[in-house]
Amino acid sequence: MEQQAVAVDYQAVLEQIAHDVSPLLGSGRPAEYIPALAGVDPARFGMAVADLQGNVYGVGDWRHPFSAQSITKVFTLALVLAADGDALWRRVGREPSGNPFNSLVQLEYENGIPRNPFINAGALVVTDALQTLTGDASSELLEFLREESGNKELAFDPEVAASEAGHGDRNAALAHFMASYGNIAGPVPALLDHYFWQCSITTSCADLTLAARFLARHGLRADGSRLLSRSQAKQINAVMLTCGTYDAAGEFAHRVGLPGKSGVGGGIVAVVPGRCTLCVWSPGLDAHGNSVAGVAALDRFTTLTGLSVF
Amino acid sequence: MEQQAVAVDYQAVLEQIAHDVSPLLGSGRPAEYIPALAGVDPARFGMAVADLQGNVYGVGDWRHPFSAQSITKVFTLALVLAADGDALWRRVGREPSGNPFNSLVQLEYENGIPRNPFINAGALVVTDALQTLTGDASSELLEFLREESGNKELAFDPEVAASEAGHGDRNAALAHFMASYGNIAGPVPALLDHYFWQCSITTSCADLTLAARFLARHGLRADGSRLLSRSQAKQINAVMLTCGTYDAAGEFAHRVGLPGKSGVGGGIVAVVPGRCTLCVWSPGLDAHGNSVAGVAALDRFTTLTGLSVF
Amino acid sequence: MEQQAVAVDYQAVLEQIAHDVSPLLGSGRPAEYIPALAGVDPARFGMAVADLQGNVYGVGDWRHPFSAQSITKVFTLALVLAADGDALWRRVGREPSGNPFNSLVQLEYENGIPRNPFINAGALVVTDALQTLTGDASSELLEFLREESGNKELAFDPEVAASEAGHGDRNAALAHFMASYGNIAGPVPALLDHYFWQCSITTSCADLTLAARFLARHGLRADGSRLLSRSQAKQINAVMLTCGTYDAAGEFAHRVGLPGKSGVGGGIVAVVPGRCTLCVWSPGLDAHGNSVAGVAALDRFTTLTGLSVF
Amino acid sequence: MEQQAVAVDYQAVLEQIAHDVSPLLGSGRPAEYIPALAGVDPARFGMAVADLQGNVYGVGDWRHPFSAQSITKVFTLALVLAADGDALWRRVGREPSGNPFNSLVQLEYENGIPRNPFINAGALVVTDALQTLTGDASSELLEFLREESGNKELAFDPEVAASEAGHGDRNAALAHFMASYGNIAGPVPALLDHYFWQCSITTSCADLTLAARFLARHGLRADGSRLLSRSQAKQINAVMLTCGTYDAAGEFAHRVGLPGKSGVGGGIVAVVPGRCTLCVWSPGLDAHGNSVAGVAALDRFTTLTGLSVF
C-alpha cells in the first residue's frame, strides 16, 4: 500500500487525457470582458508535462500561444520572495479568501491587508513590491519567463493590456483603497500599468511547464541556481493549493489534489512536487473562471497516474 | 532530485521533535470557556505516529487522555460519506471559509449552506445527516473510534458535554438559522445534544493515530474492509488541508504542508497519504485555537522527514 | 408662509383618501408565511384618525379586526421606557439598520447590540426587558392596549401565534446569538413565546389610533396620567421616523414625512405630534413588507392636510 | 395641548444657548486629517438663526469663517434636483446606510448604487451628476451659495482642497468602484477635483442659515423664485433627518429632532420647516464626526422653543 515513485509514461498519459476530455471541448465560455480573449475558439485544447530534467511532453495545442493572465501571479510572487524574503508576508496574508463578495469588506476589516497573493488585491501588492524592488516589475517578470522557458520570443500583448486597462476601474478601486491604508508604496496609475502588462503576456503550455519547474525542483531554477529556499518553494505550492483557483480552490483540491494556478485565458499550471510540472489550456471557462476542460484534464491526470498529493 | 520513499525511523524522529519543541511547552493558553479543559496543564506534550500496518510510535504523553473536540469532525464526516455517498455535498460546501466574522453573513448569502464541514455550521449539518442516517449520531461515532483504535474504553465526558451545552447559544443560533433555510432535518435541541457529546469524547494520541489510518490507507479500515472509496479518502484529506485548522489553514499548509485537523482540546491529527498518520497533543493554544507546540511539532516532522505533500 | 395650525376636517379628508387610493386596492400581496394572514382579502381598506381629545374618525374597514404584528413593537418599547427609563438604550441602539442582509453580521460586529428596537433582534431585546420587568410581557402589552383603546375585547390570536412559532427558526437564531453575547436575560424559549403572542394581537384601526395617542400627546395617556416624559415620547417618534418601516424608512420619510410603524398584517400607525394619530389598514404588501394602499393613503393625508413634519 | 405657532425671541434663545453650552467648549477634537482644520481652536462657538423673511440672529462666532465640508452636500443635492428632477434617484438611494464598515460591501451588494446622497459614495454621484449637467460643478455650487447668502466673498480654500486631495485614496476607490458599475459618467480624476473643491468652501453661520432658507421656505429661493417643488424640499429635509449626521442620524433625530447636516469643519445646518433655519459651529468633534457643542446647542434650541418636528 506504500506509495511508490512509479515511472510514468507522460506522453501516453497525455494522449489518453486528450481522448478522455474531448467531449468537453467547447464547453464553458471564454472570458468576455477582454475582446482579444473573447474571440478565441473555445474548443482548443493543449497540455504539456515537464519532468525535473526539462524534458517536455505535449499533446494538442501545447505549443499554441495564449494569454497567461493570472498564472503570472505565481511567478511575480516567486520573484518577490526571492528578492526580499519573508518581508512580503507583512503586507499580504496566506489564507483563502472566502466568497467573492467579501473581497472589499475583508480588506476593510483587515486594514488593507489582502488575504493572499492570488486574489487581485494581493497580486497588486505583490506587483507593487516587485516594482519597488526592481523599478520595472513587468519587464522583470517577462525576462524571468523567457529565461526559464528558453523562449526569447515571449512578449506582452499591447491589445490585451489595453483591454484590461479599459476595464480597470475595479482594480483601481482596490489599489486606491489599499493605498488609503498605506499598503501601496508607489503611485497607483503606474502600478496598474505594470499589473495589466504582466497579465497580458502571451505564452504556451510548453513555455509555462518549463518556467514553473522551480516549484517541482524545491526552488532550483533551470540552470541549477537557487531561486527560492526549499521552504519558500513549499510555501508557494501551499498557497497555490489553498488559493490558486479563485473561489473553487476547495473543489480543485478535492478533484485534482495538486497545487495549481489558473488564469482567465484558459490556462492552468499545476505542480507535482519532486516529480513534474503541468500546464493545460482550453479557453472555455466555468462559472468560477477556471477552464472546464483544463480542470477535467488535471483530474484525469491524477486519476491515471496516482500523482495527487493526497 | 526525484522524491524517494525513504524509510523513516519514526521513534527517533519523535524523540528529536520532543526535544526541539520543549522550549515551547507552556506557551499559549488552554481553551477557557470549558472549565474541564481550562484546568489542564499547558506544558503537557505527546505525539504518536502510526504506520499503514498499525505499528504505533510515541513520545511524551502520547497515551494520556485528552478531549478530542473538533478532531471528531473528521470521523463524523467519514461516516456520513461512507453511509450516504456524495449526497452530503448538496448540503455543505468544500471551500475555505475566509475570516471568522463572515460565518453568519456567509450562511445568509449562500442560503443556509455552510462553506465546509469543519466550521461549526458545517459540522452541525454533518451531525444532523448522521443522526438522520443512524438515529444515534454520537454513539455511532464513539463505536467507530473504539473499533479503529482498538480501545474499548473510549467514552464521552459528561462534564465536558455539559460545559459545551452551557455555552451553546452560538451553536444554537447557527442550527436554527440553517433550519430556517430547511438545511437541518431533525429537531435542533437533539442535534445540539449529539454535537456536544461528540466533541466531549476523551481519547489519546495513540488512539487517534490508529483511528485516522483509513485516511492514509486510501479508505481502508483497520480490518482491511473499505470504509471510503479512494476518491472519498482523497476528498477528506483535501478538505483537511484547506479547512482543517480554523482560520489558519493557509498558515498550516504553509508551515506543515499536510492534511490536518485540530481541536481546542490541544490535539491535532495529520495525515501523510500512503505513509502514516500522526497525532500530537499539547493544550496551549494560539490565537486561532491551534496547539502552539502541536503545530511546531508537525512543522519539525515535515522538515526532518521531508514528508510534506508539497 | 409661516405654517399655521389649521383646523382639519378629518372625516372629509378620510373620505377623499379612500376615494383616491381605491385604484390601488388589491395591489401587493398579503404576508404568506402565516396562513391566517395569507387568507385575508387584499382589497380591504380602512383608515382612522384620533385627535388629542380622543375623537375618532374613520372610513372603510376602520373597525375591522386585523393582526397587529410589528405595530405592537411601538407599545412594548413605550412600556419598557416607562418602567425602566433609559437603561434600555444600553442594550439596543437607535440607528437605522441599513440593508437587510446585514442584520446578523451587524449583530456580530457590534457585539450582540441590535441597531434599533424595531428590527426583530431589537424587538426581542425589548420583549426580554419587559419580561424581566413584569414577568409577563405579552399580558402586560395586551392590558395596555385594552386600556388605551377602551376595547376590552382585544385578544391574542392563538392560531397566528402558532403559525409564527412554526416559522420561528430565524428569530430563535437571533435570540440565541444575542444570548451568546449576554444580551438576553431570560430563557430563549419563553422569550419567543411572548414575542409571538405579542405579534398575534388582533386589533383595528380604531383601536390603534386611540392606543397610540400618547405619542401625539407628548407622553400623556388617555386618562391624562403620564406614561412617558416629553423627551421619551419624542424619542419614540424619532425612532419610528428613522426605523419604523423596515428597509424603506427613508422612502417613507420622503413620501409621508411622519413617524410611522408598519406590520405585515397590513397596518400602519402614524403620528402627527401635537395634533393627531392615524392608523391605516390594507393587507396587500409591497416588497419591503409595508401596505401598498396604506403608504399611499398616508402620503395623500400629508399632501391634503400639509401635516407632514417636514 | 395643540402645538401653537408661538412667536420666538430668537436672539434671547441664542444667548441662552451660548450660556448653556459654554461648559462643553473645547470638548471633542477638530478633524485631524486636514492640517488646515486641525489648527482651529476647538473652543470657538457661533450660532445663527434666519427666519423666513431673511432676518438673521447670531451669537458668538456667528460671522467667523469656517470650512463648510459636507454641509455643501445639501446644496449640491438641491441643485441637481432643481436641474434634473427625480432622475437622480435612479442612481442613488434614500435610505440610511447602517454602520460604516458596510459602505463598500453595500455598494457591491447593491450594484454600485449608494444608499443615500450624503454618504461619500452618494455625494460623489451627485457631484458627477451636477458636473454632467453644468460642466463645472464646483463653480455652480459656489455661485449658488454666494447668491443665497448675499456674500460675494465666499470662496474655495485651495489649501484645504489640496489637503483633501492628498488624503483622497478612499474617495478615489469609491469613485472607481462605482465607475466599474457604470454609475459615474465623467472621468474620475476631474470628479475628485470638483468634489474636493466643493468641500473646501469657506463660509460662516450667517452665510449658511441664509443659504439654506429654501428648505424652510418649501423650495423658494431668497429672491422668491422657486428652486424646488414643495415635494422636493420635503424630500431633502427627510434625507437630512434620516441620513444627515453620519452614523449618528438616529441619535440626532432622538436628541434634536430636526433635519440637519453636519460637516467635519464643525458646522451643522438644521431646518425647522415653515419657520426658520439654523447654523451652529464649534470645531470639537465627537467620535461620529459631529460637533460636540453644535449638537448640544441644537438640542437646547428644540428644548427651549419646542420647535422639534416630533
UniProtKB/TrEMBL annotation, chains A, B, C, D:
Its EC number is 3.5.1.2. It catalyses: L-glutamine + H2O = L-glutamate + NH4(+). Substrate binds at residues 70, 120, 164, 171, 195, 246, 264. SUPFAM superfamilies: beta-lactamase/transpeptidase-like. It is an enzyme of class 3 (hydrolase). InterPro entries: Beta-lactam/transpept-like (IPR012338), Glutaminase (IPR015868). Keywords: Acetylation, Hydrolase. NCBIfam families: Gln_ase (TIGR03814), PRK00971.1-1 (NF002132), PRK00971.1-2 (NF002133). Homotetramer. Belongs to the glutaminase family. This is Glutaminase. It comes from Streptomyces sanyensis.
